[in-house]
Specification:
about 350 residues; alpha/beta; Spore Coat Polysaccharide Biosynthesis Protein SpsA, Chain A; UDP N-Acetylglucosamine Acyltransferase, domain 1; 2 domains; 7-stranded mixed sheet; 6-stranded parallel sheet; 8 helices
Length: about 350
């Protein structure tokens, strides 16, 4: 079995972060989102991985390389534009050949891995197997319609009137039959070849489509609040590890990771939290569910339930929470007069000031 990982989206919901960074490489607990999926694929025994890439191909390739550091063999497949999940499958058709494959959306996180799904698929050999999760707002997702016995009878993409609350999680397993089905569908109203339409074509052809429902967490990290929630959940599993410097005036409370070269000076870090390599925390409080990437500076302020990317500077700010700061961002207090907020923000930025 092969794996097809989709990492070509533009990440419009995470702008301005994704103006300069692939959304699949935004870190959760200081590790790129994409790496969690690749690790779960490897743990399921699949090592031949095709990665669909787009305009951020160079960045994805630089991060993943040939895949050997993650225990996989990576092949990069360029999609000319984000034209839908079924179009991504067709983009990979020559590489997939006649083999079964798992398709994994590169900005999704699921609890428990996919090993049990792969085992069920290989045992029962349906033409497609979808993963479902009950959600509060199914209009945001592809949605499955099940009969009284739990069999899939229909699928619809982002319906105004959902037939159920069961959303399609970003993990699918297919035989090569999906390739023929994808070739026989038309673009949706969004102008995309929808994977839901291709799976519906399988159903219309009398093919078998199985469904599994997950009870654990599933996170689509496409928006800031979703990313912070993913960071909170993943940090809940970290274990204390201190490889940097912590001076005698500082206190680490609970599960805190201090990576090599980091310095905690006159500060309190209350876990779960991760402090990246070469970062300096001085006269500050870093609260639970915070990830601070490498080479940051946090001085004389409080930061909680936030994600700071590489080389951020936060200085003399009374309190920062529920925040996502991009690479090289600066949040500092100034004594300049007249007193005022002075901002330089990229497109799609959001600022809330108390």
């Amino acid at each position: 079995m092969k794996a097809l990982v989709l990492a070509g989206g533009s990440g419009t919901r995470l702008r301005p972060i994704t103006h300069t960074s692939a959304k699949q490489l935004v870190p959760v607990a200081n590790k790129p989102i994409l790496f969690y999926g690749l690790e779960q694929i490897r743990e399921a025994g699949i090592t031949d991985v095709g990665i669909i890439v787009g305009d951020t191909q160079d960045e994805i390739e630089a991060a993943v390389g040939d895949g050997s550091a993650l225990g996989i063999s990576a092949t990069y497949l360029r999609q000319d534009a984000p034209r839908g999940l079924a179009h991504a499958v067709l983009t990979a058709a020559d590489w997939l050949g006649d083999e079964d494959f798992v398709m994994f959306l590169g900005d999704n996180l699921i609890e428990g891995g996919i090993g049990h799904l792969v085992e069920a698929f290989e045992r029962d050999r349906p033409d497609a197997q979808v993963l479902l999760k009950s959600v509060g707002d199914p209009t945001r997702f592809g949605v499955a319609d099940l009969d009284g016995e739990g069999a899939v009878v229909g699928l619809v993409e982002k319906p105004a009137d959902p037939p159920s609350d069961l959303a399609l999680v970003g993990v699918y397993l297919f035989t090569s039959a999906i390739l023929d089905a994808a070739r026989r569908i038309e673009p949706s109203g969004r102008g995309e070849l929808e994977i839901t339409d291709a799976i519906q074509r399988l159903l219309d052809d009398g093919r078998r489509v199985h469904a599994s429902t997950i009870d654990g967490w599933w996170l689509d990290t496409g928006k800031k609040d979703d990313l912070l929630e993913a960071n909170r959940i993943v940090l809940g599993s970290v274990r204390r590890r201190v490889e940097g410097e912590v001076d005698e005036r500082s206190e680490l409370v609970g599960e805190v990771v201090v990576e090599p070269g980091a310095r905690i000076l006159g500060s309190t870090v209350r876990g779960p939290a991760v402090i990246g390599a070469r970062t300096r925390i001085e006269d500050a409080f870093v609260g639970p569910f915070t990830s601070v990437a490498p080479d940051c500076v946090v001085e004389r302020c409080e930061v909680e339930f936030s994600v700071l990317l590489e080389r951020c500077v936060v200085r003399d700010v009374s309190r920062l929470e529920g925040s996502l700061l991009g690479r090289d961002a600066r949040v500092v207090r100034t004594e300049r007069r007249p007193a005022a907020h002075r901002l330089m923000l990229g497109d799609h930025s959001s600022v809330e000031i108390s």
